[in-house]
Design goal:
By secondary structure, this protein is α/β, with parallel strands linked by helices. It is built from 21 helices and five strands. It has a five-stranded parallel beta sheet, sandwiched between helices. Helix 1 (17-27) links the parallel strand 1 and strand 2 (32-39). Bound molecules: flavin-adenine dinucleotide.
Length: 491
């Protein structure tokens, strides 16, 4: 008999719960182990997957095949258009290869859950077991609850409750052991990539994001040894490279959340909170990831383009395509915002402080529907992740669980003064401003900026702020619309 591991967003051999379980069975002599990955380009497109993320998955799979081969686990890569096509294909594949069980690590968004339910039925009809494991988070979604047994809607008490549960513990790791030979990994057809991602290329240089577990571990080690200590002081300055840049690896499961927490706990003498400031702060950030996955699992409306706070659907969002386009292209006339948007499009990643600045700029100062911004981010981020991206956008738009109060706006000028004082990050991303004095970056519309070919400001900040505050104040008076906004809402 053989056991099949179905890889999804857990593209690693290290600390992979489904894989370890199958390998244990193999060691008891119960089975051989194989692995499978499904590319679903049509579905990925519908989910707004960024080309840079698809490319990263492809490169990661090449590394994963090599690592799995060392464990004598062959990996097949199959392409079907959509999730709905997987159940039949997988059931046939598993039957043809005499599989008695398919193992996978759970994914929590709505469409992934529906896909797995269909797979469960299709495999069940052929007498094949489908077994799923919690792996993506430290604690399973649904297991961290308020005293009333409800899911948390606010981060700080969630974090407190989670830490109470795990205090004194550190993650434990098991080395994966070879499965024993079943068959060689089948060669990948030369033209596979053409159907794997038949859409446009990202243009992002591959060397910015080296693929595979080794690269992820090296990145974690470098961060833990050289940057974690100063994380709290340096993490808000986009020029400084003070954050881990592990998000693409975490989003695809190339490194496990437990490995990251373990590295922070090692620096923190095993403490989850109340230790070293850098490690404490980083643990908190990792737990924001955990929080948003728990939120998504408890409140599936966030997967359906709905706000967490339904009353905010009554905000009179603007749908101005020209203003939106200027934001997308980094031509708002606000240098820090434009530098950030160029960073996103050119590198597939944006610094966290700038994600907050650009998101608030769009949905507050321009009052454009946050869902347009959420979609644009998803279409360009290498770390695009529904839970974190939606959580971040709803936080910025004040429509979410633990959102910024609607009257607290991050001014792009004040943020530039605080976090890019000398304008070096801005100049790096906007070479057309290389010879303009940095002090002018907080004076949008200044003649020297315009003389450099830089655009007029897209909005008067004072007017934009008042418009946003008034839209939120008026929202209370408007009945909540019942319509469902489609995922294709963007222009
Ligand atoms: P570090 O500062 O080193 O943090 C370590 C890890 O913790 C990150 O890799 C990430 O997995 C997690 N993390 C940190 N901050 C957050 C947060 N606020 N929410 C959830 N997880 C967090 N993160 C994504 O992974 N994917 C997204 O699609 C995404 N979209 C976002 C959209 C908006 C509008 C905002 C405000 C934030 C978004 N984030 C997203 C969160 C955060 O900006 C990134 O995780 C972070 O910038 C990644 O850089 P890093 O790996 O160097 O982070």
């Amino acid at each position: 008999m053989t056991r099949l591991i179905w890889f999804r967003s857990d593209l690693r051999v290290d600390d992979n719960t489904a894989l370890l379980n199958a390998l244990r069975d193999a060691h008891r002599g119960e089975c051989k182990v194989g692995a499978i990955f499904y590319a679903t380009p049509g579905q990925w497109r519908e989910h707004d997957m960024a080309p840079v993320k698809a490319e990263f998955i492809w490169r990661t799979l090449a590394q994963l095949r090599t690592s799995l081969a060392k464990l004598q686990v062959p990996l097949w890569v199959r392409v079907v258009p959509r999730y709905a096509d997987i159940a039949r294909d997988l059931a046939q594949f598993a039957t043809d290869n005499h599989c008695d069980a398919v193992f996978a690590n759970r994914e929590y968004p709505v469409n992934e859950t529906a896909r797995d339910a269909a797979v469960d039925v299709a495999l069940g009809e052929r007498g094949i077991l489908f077994k799923t494991f919690h792996d993506a988070t430290l604690l399973p979604p649904g297991s961290v609850l308020t005293q009333m047994g409800q899911p948390f809607k606010v981060f700080t008490p969630f974090k407190r409750a989670l830490i109470q549960r795990v205090a004194g513990e550190t993650p434990q790791f098991e080395q994966p052991k070879s499965a024993g030979f079943w068959c060689d990994a089948p060669p990948l057809p030369d033209d596979l990539y053409e159907s794997f991602w038949p859409y446009e290329k990202s243009g992002v240089p591959e060397k910015l994001w080296p693929a595979g577990e080794k690269a992820a571990f090296a990145q974690l080690q470098l961060f833990a040894n050289e940057k974690l200590h100063d994380y709290r002081e340096r993490r808000d300055f986009p020029l400084l490279d003070g954050t881990s840049r592990l998000s693409p690896y975490l989003a695809l499961g190339v490194i496990s959340i437990r490995r990251c927490l373990d590295a922070a706990l090692a620096l923190n003498g095993g403490q989850w909170a109340g230790g070293e400031q850098g490690a404490d702060t980083w643990i908190s950030e990792l737990l924001w990831r955990e929080f948003y996955i728990h939120v998504l699992s408890a409140f599936p409306q966030v997967c359906k383009y709905r706000p967490m706070r339904p009353e905010t659907d009554a905000v009179a969002w603007r749908y101005d395509k020209e203003d939106f386009q200027r934001w997308c292209e980094g031509r708002t006339g606000f240098p820090l915002v434009d530098a950030a948007m160029r960073q996103l499009v050119q590198t597939g990643w944006m610094h966290n402080r700038l994600r907050m600045v650009t998101a608030m700029f769009l949905c507050k100062y321009l009052l454009i529907d946050w869902r347009w911004g959420e979609q644009f981010f998803m279409r360009h981020l290498i770390d695009g992740d529904l839970a974190a991206n939606n959580g971040g956008w709803q936080w910025s738009a004040s429509t979410g669980t633990d959102a910024a109060p609607y009257f607290r706006l991050l001014s792009p000028l004040r943020q530039a003064e605080r976090f890019d004082d000398a304008g070096l990050f801005t100049k790096k991303m906007l070479p057309e401003l290389a010879n303009v004095e940095a002090g002018l970056f907080i004076k949008p519309g200044a003649p020297q900026l315009l003389a450099a070919g830089y655009p007029e400001p897209v909005v008067d900040l004072k007017m934009g702020r008042e418009r946003a505050l008034s839209a939120f104040t008026q929202m209370a008076a408007v009945p909540v619309p019942q319509k469902t906004v489609s995922r294709k809402a963007g222009p």
